[in-house]
Amino acid sequence: xxxxxxDKKVPIPYxxxxxxxxxxxxxxxxxxxxxxLPAIFYQLLKQTPDADRWAxxxxxxxxxxxxxxxxxxxxxxxxxxxxxxxxxxxxxxxxIGVAVFLIxxxxxxxxxxxxxxxxxxxxxxxxxxxxxxxKIVFPANIWGKLYSFLLAxxxxxxxxxxxxxxxxxxxxxxxxxxxxx
Length: 181
Prior knowledge:
By secondary structure, this protein is an all-alpha fold. 76% of the residues lie in helices and 2% in strands. The protein has helices spanning 3-6, 25-35, 37-46, 49-75, 81-106, 110-134, 142-159, 164-180; strands spanning 15-16, 136-137. Strands 1-2 form a two-stranded antiparallel sheet. Helix 5 (81-106) packs antiparallel against helix 6 and helix 6 runs parallel beside helix 8.
């Protein structure tokens, strides 16, 4: 019944690299995510409820820059190959950076961090190979976006020290998303 769908090849959208157009507002927003890391670490170091809330506010600001950079790039018609590279790279640097802080300060599991890093290395390595060999960039897909959202929820849970009843189920879902994405 569905055999006609199995034989069909669905093209994966990609962008051929022609230009890099580095200096755009959307790319600056992507870089701002990485620049927020020291301020977040400083707040987490204080280990007070108010500082934890400030750290979370800064993380939410970073999330807002992630939403805005793509929207602004489309709105201002400044989508670039560089933006398609720097946006997910900034996301990975940001999430890994915050996870390192939480390993040191809040008991974020090292085994989960290793899974995150291996996943990201596979994605970055595959993307770098496609860029080098074929001069193409693939956009993020829904699985990667869902993974990032769930990982952000888990990180927020550790930031606010919400406890194992919240953290453990979220950890299980994030592990599943590491595998799926």
